[in-house]
Amino acid sequence: MIARSLPEGGAPPTGFLSAKRDRTVSVAAVAILSFVAGLLAAAQFVRLHSGPAAADRVFELRVYHALPGRLPALHANFRDTNIRFLKKHGIESIGYWTPQDPPDSENTLIFLLAHDSREAAARHWKEFRDDPEWQQIAQASRAGGEIIERIESTFLTPTDYSPLK
């Protein structure tokens, strides 16, 4: 850690923390606004209505973190096969995004899925993983080395005021 000496009284130079905080807030705001804009754009292709959501319908936000240099392989997998297999197993793709700013733009794929229920999601993911054709394709895709460092999955319920239900 690099130690910096502060002026008398211990306060950092005027604007020092403010500039750093403003940059952090700006990056976060751009990321959130980009994600929301993508969701709204995707809403025209999915069930968009102002009434209540289907009783059990849930969304799943997935974040895939690729190993260094492997994001292009991850994109190729989704483009060429993964989306087709998700659909085959009853998993509805809403949209796919990559962050705009480094370092996340170098290794992150973010996507939103829809399921009729949490139970349906569990069943469909099991069917997906157990599909022999999928297992062969997944194994072949890793011939050049592992692709994924980690996966995050969060299930979401739309609010009563959400345009996407």
Write the layout of secondary structure elements.
Layout: H1 16-43, E1 58-66, H2 71-88, E2 92-97, E3 108-115, H3 118-130, H4 132-141, E4 148-156
Antiparallel strand pairs: 1-3, 1-4, 2-3
Would you mind describing this structure in some detail?
There is one protein chain. This protein is an alpha+beta fold. It has a single domain, classed as Alpha-Beta Plaits (2-Layer Sandwich). The chain is built from four helices and four strands; from the N terminus they run αβαββααβ. A four-stranded antiparallel beta sheet has the order 2-3-1-4, with helices on both faces. The longest helix is centred in the N-terminal third of the chain and has 28 residues. It is flat.
Could you give a short description of this structure?
The protein has 165 residues and is an alpha+beta fold. It has four helices and four strands.
Features:
4 helices, 42% helix, 165 residues, alpha+beta, Alpha-Beta Plaits, disordered N terminus
**CATH class value:** Alpha Beta
Uncertain spans: 1-7, 16-26, 44-53
Calculate Rg over CA atoms: 20 Å
Structural class: alpha+beta
Average of pLDDT = 79
Into how many domains do the coordinates divide? 1
Helix content, binned percent:
40-55%
Q: Which CATH architecture would you pick?
A: 2-Layer Sandwich
Strand count = 4
Main sheet characteristics: 4 strands, antiparallel
Query: Number of helix segments?
Result: 4
The SSE order reads HEHEEHHE
Q: The CATH topology is what?
A: Alpha-Beta Plaits
Shape: flat
Strand order of the largest sheet: 2-3-1-4
Spatial gap, N to C terminus? 47 Å
Strand content: 15-25%
